Amino acid sequence: MIEVPANAYPVVEATVDPIEVDAVILRMAAARGMVLTISQLEAAGISRFQVHRRLGRLLTQVTDGVYAVGVVTGEVRLQAALAALPQAFVSHGTAAQRHGLPIPPSDEVSVLLSGRRSFMGYTGRIMSHGLAYADRETDVKNIYAGKPQADELLRRHRIGYVVVGPPERETLSANEEFFMRFPLVGEAGGYRLYAVPGS
Shortest CA distance to 158 belongs to which of 184, 194, 196, 104? Predict the structure, then answer.
């Protein structure tokens, strides 16, 4: 028998009849794409202890505080990522896939924090608008390479977050050691999101 310390779960009184918990979870999951957050479950009267007892049986933890009912597919992982970060949106291959555009199959989910401007996007698009981008592109390359002036460039341009993923590793030769000194905010697939302190 596994003993759970009395203070392991915050006190949230379960208001759902224990016999009905599974049925309530299934109804909620069916209405929400088979993905539920701990706050949704608690709001429905299901305690964290009741959730914990269903892990590996009815529920699978997809990420912190987000659970799935049934098989965890790429779509379920996407829904979980969006549930975990309410101000997030899909981008890159994931956005193309959701709009029915052809892309190579992948289990990776691309999710970015919304409400933030990108320092520099795809240069082809910038160039097509006739904008000067050479200086900014040089700064991006110096930042990702972790050059001596990278800290100053991050401060000057007030860059608060940096994404390091397959594109940055491949095309910019991202210096992972340089970014590892920053707090890791999150990671999914081959992508890592770092916070830049003081920006």
Answer: 196
In contact, 28 and 41? CB cutoff 8 Å = yes
Domain 21-76's class? mainly alpha
Over range 96-114, report the average pLDDT.
Answer: 56
Short-list 92, 129, 86, 87, CA closest to 109: 92
With contact defined as beta carbons under 8 Å apart, do 54 and 38 qualify?
no
Q: Which residues have a Cβ under 8 Å from the Cβ of 40 and sit 6 or more positions away? A: 28, 32
Kindly give the residue spans of alpha helices, DSSP state H, lying in the chain: 21-31, 38-43, 48-53, 74-84, 92-98, 123-128, 134-145, 150-156, 166-172, 176-179
CA–CA dist 89, 74 (Å, integer): 15
CA separation for the pair 36, 25 (Å, rounded): 8
Please state the pTM of the whole predicted model: 0.47
- Indicate the domain borders of the chain: 21-76, 85-114, 116-195
Tell me if 112 sits within 8 A of 119, measured CB to CB: no
Question: What confidence category does residue 191 fall into, taking pLDDT thresholds of 50, 70 and 90?
Answer: confident
